[in-house]
Amino acid sequence: MRRRLVRDPSNRRVKHRPEQSTAAFCSHGLQEEIRVRYFFNIRDGERTEEDLEGSEFDTLELAIEDARLAAREIMAEHVLAGYEPDGQFFDIADEEGRVLVSVPFRSALRSKSQ
Questions:
Q1: Are 101 and 39 within 8 A, CB to CB?
Q2: Distance between CA atoms of 11 and 8, rounded to whole angstroms?
Q3: Helix, strand, coil: what percent of the chain each, to 5?
Q4: CB-CB contact of 48 with 42 (8 Å)
Q5: What stretches of the chain show up as alpha helix (H) in DSSP?
Q6: pLDDT per residue as tens digits for the range 5-37
Q7: Which of 57, 72, 108, 112 would give a disulfide with 62, using CB separation of 3.0 to 4.6 Å?
């Protein structure tokens, strides 16, 4: 089951909402789900909030897309609380803890010209 990041305003930690996953057919014809677990650690300056649960996705690109959606939600909370959302990143890591990509929260925003 694939999960989508959701921000919980009560405790400010990233939660995960289940979503429908996709499946692929392997060489012997049986249906087999192909997923990788990614961890969405939030980096804010020198401070890092680790995602201990992780979420499964079919591709890294889908994980990045989900990180951008979650970043929008988190930034919206910051703005509503009167803070300027600046400098936060999702460091998306694999199960061994290697950071595969850093996604700046601001990359989730569109410019006014779009």
A1: no
A2: 6
A3: 20, 40, 40
A4: yes
A5: 60-80
A6: 444 444 444 444 444 444 445 555 555 567 899
A7: 57
